[in-house]
Each structure stands twice: as C-alpha cells, then as structure tokens.
Design brief:
The chain is an all-beta fold and about 350 residues long. It contains one helix and 27 strands. The protein starts with a strand and ends in a 19-residue tail after the last strand.
C-alpha cells in the first residue's frame, strides 16, 4: 500500500521478517517506511542530534552536509569545498560547529545561522588532523564517536570499489586533545562501526571483506585485538550484497545496511544469525542510525549510484532518507564529538 504525498515523500506499509530457525516459516509484523527527504546522489553518514532533534547526513561527492528537522519537516544543506565529505558529527560543546571529513582530513566547520536556511556555505573551516600522506587517492569514509567523544573513522582509496581488495585504507581514533592514532591498517573500504554497551567489544565492517567483524576493545587505549567474524555475507548467501553502515539497539542487536539488497538486516552478534530484516524501496542502502525523541525511529540513507535507467524508474526515491517506525525496539543516542579544535 502506498500513498504519494510529494514527488519525494511517501510512505509504505512493509514487513519485517523474523527467522525463527533455518528452514522454518517466517512470521511478519507491520512497520512503516517513509521517505522524508528529497533524493541526493550518495547519501551517507546519518547522525541524530539529540539537542536539536534533527538528523544530519552527507551527500559525499557533492560535498554537502544536510540537515532534516522532523518536527518542522524543514530540510537544509551546507556546502563544503575541498574534497569528498563523508561524515558529520556535531561538536558536543560548540552548538554551531560540526566535525566533518574533507578528503583525507578531519575538520571543524561552522553552520551559519539560522540553520533552516535552504542552502549555505560552511564557515570557519579548521583542519584538526590529516592522514594517509603516502596515499594521495585516499579519503575518509565512515566514522562516529564513542561515549568519550573521540571520533573513530576509517579511510579507503577513493578510486576503489568492492571486490578490488585494495588495502590502502586504515582506521583511526581522533582523541579529545586533537591527536590522531592509527588502530587498524590494511583496510579496503572502512565502513560501519559500533560498540557494545560495556565498550568491551568493537564491531567493524570492511565492506570489501563482506563481513561484520568484532574485536576485543581496550577502551581506554582504543587498542583492538582478537578479531572474529560475526557474519560473512558470502557464507550466508547475501553476496553480491555487502554490509555498509551499521547501528546497534538497546538489546545489543546490530542493524546493518545491506548495500545491493535493499534491506536493513538485524543480526544477533552472539549467534551470528539474521533475526529479521526491513525492506527499503531502494536497493543501494548505505547507512542507518536511530533517532526520534525515544530513539525508536530508524533513519536510513541510500544512493542512486550505479542504478540503471530502468532501475531508477522503479526506484524514484533512491537517494532519499527513509524513516522506519514500528520496529518495537529502541536504539542508543548518537555520541557527539568532544575534540580540541586548533586556533586559526
């Protein structure tokens, strides 16, 4: 069932499917998936800002940071010159400042007031840290903050794609004092990341490996060890879809955007089993986060990249942000960034 509200905003009644055991029938319960923003080319990096009750996300190649305020349904964007913009996290102590990636650098940017202006250019860009000097084609990709406000973010070769196994990327932790430390190397496409509630387990996706992995995490030193695989998309028959962005719910279940499948998969990290999934009316879903006043809304970014004209005709909302409601579970707040910003 579908009713069109605007050319880009509609809602669907779809189902989530719960796998009770291998070979069993699936029971289903209704949820609602709504397109809430106009399409962009490559939406990524959703972050729910609690104090603003607004969603931030990026359009990577167009170098735009977008902001969507559900209560007013207002949508605005801020352009940043200098390179691909792949992540955005509000600064914890500076209300107008966002931490963003621009190419191989992590920077602070000020969003000019008022934030509901339809389109503005970023002000006061300040470089905090730059990485991967030996790999000029690299860029940052996914990233988010831990509960201490440290920004964990990874890199990839900007010219690579899934399946090329080009291990030029690394994963970094930007510490509160503004220094940056490499915590993983030989990464192809650094993507989704999350932590367990006790911060002893770090979940990580290298999309090129088609896996969701877990590491033992020494949270104080951000050292990672004892890698093990939670789920391998090749082994469970999900390939050619691959895991992209990821979030976690209050029960410790991982919700993974499966690029190419048009699904958000809920994975039990203890058993490695897919417990249920939500169908999204766009095949190339990129990332996911929790939002809303009670953190029971899920926001999904996606892209029209790689879709043929025939596919685009069938997926007119590709590139929109979708909101999922009715899941019957809650997530955790997105952490804001608490890092020192160098003076100009």
């Amino acid at each position: 069932m579908m009713s069109i509200r605007t050319p880009w905003s509609s809602h669907y009644t779809v189902t989530t499917n719960r796998l009770e055991k291998e070979g069993s029938n699936m029971s289903s319960s209704g949820v609602k998936v709504s397109a809430v923003t106009p399409p962009v080319y490559l939406g990524e990096g959703p972050h729910w800002c609690v104090r603003e009750q607004a969603l931030y996300y990026v359009d990577i190649p167009n170098q735009d940071v977008h902001r969507y305020h559900p209560q007013t349904e207002k949508h605005s964007k801020m352009h940043i010159d200098g390179g691909f913009v792949t992540l955005v996290v509000p600064h914890k102590d500076l209300s107008d400042v966002l931490i963003v990636s621009v190419g191989r650098s992590l920077m602070s940017a000020t969003w000019p007031q008022p934030k509901n202006n339809i389109s503005v250019n970023a002000k006061n860009l300040v470089t905090i840290a730059s990485v991967d000097d030996k790999y000029p084609d690299n860029r940052f990709n996914d990233g988010k903050c831990d509960v201490l406000g440290r920004l964990w973010a990874g890199t990839m070769n900007s010219k690579t794609d899934v399946g090329q196994n080009l291990l030029d990327g690394s994963h970094y932790c930007l510490r509160n004092d503004g220094s940056i430390n490499k915590i993983l190397d030989q990464v192809a496409i650094s993507n989704g990341l999350e932590w367990s509630a006790d911060n002893k387990t770090f979940y990580f996706i290298d999309s090129d490996a088609y896996r969701v992995d877990a590491y033992t995490c020494d949270f104080a030193t951000h050292a990672l060890s004892d890698r093990r695989t939670i789920i391998d998309y090749k082994l469970v028959g999900l390939k050619p879809a691959f895991p992209d962005g990821m979030t976690i719910d209050e029960d410790g279940k991982l919700w993974v955007a499966s690029y190419g499948a048009g699904k958000i998969h809920c994975i039990n990290p203890v058993t490695g089993k897919i417990e249920r999934w939500v169908d999204i009316p766009c095949s190339n879903v990129t990332s996911v986060c929790w939002g809303g006043p009670q953190f029971d809304h899920m926001y999904v970014t996606c892209t029209s990249k790689g879709l043929s004209e025939e596919q685009l005709a069938k997926q007119p909302q590709a590139g929109s942000v979708f909101r999922i409601t009715g899941l019957g579970c809650h997530g955790r707040p997105s952490n804001e960034c608490k890092v020192a910003i160098p003076k100009k």
